[in-house]
Amino acid sequence: MIDDHWREYAERRTGAELDRLLHYGHWIPVIRGYTAEYVDEHFPGWTWNTLMLIWRAAGIVVKSEVGGPLRCDGRVKAVYFNGPDSFAVEWIDGTITRS
């Protein structure tokens, strides 16, 4: 059950879910259309570009090794969001950052 202070957000995703999504940001799945398919299936109503605006504004995207896909910061417990200007990050250590 989601606590009342999270109810203002339409979406909630865990750090693990975002890590799986960001795996599709590599150029190979992008050009083959796998990224768009993944977003359509797992993030209906959203686009890759809009989601990336949220993740970057929230400061949760990190680079992996050279040539590898982007990753979600391992300290992220969950991200709650409505869009690029309305989000909150719940960190594993219990702190919360908001837009």
Low-confidence stretches: none
Shape: globular
Order of helices and strands: EHHHHEEEEE
Count of DSSP helices? 4
Tell me the radius of gyration: 13 Å
Give the total of domains.
1
Ends: how far apart?
Answer: 23 Å
Strand proportion, as a percent range, falls in 25-35%
Q: What is the percent of helical residues?
A: 25-40%
Give a count of the beta strands, DSSP E runs of length 2 or more. Answer: 6
The description of the largest β-sheet is: 4 strands, antiparallel
Q: How do the strands of the widest beta sheet line up side by side?
A: 1-4-5-6
The residue-averaged pLDDT reads 89
Helix and strand content put the structural class at alpha+beta
Description of the structure:
With 99 residues, the protein is α+β, with helices and mostly antiparallel strands. It has one domain. Helices cover 35% and strands 27% of the residues. It has a four-stranded antiparallel sheet. A two-stranded antiparallel sheet has the order 2-3. A hairpin with a 2-residue loop joins strand 4 and strand 5.
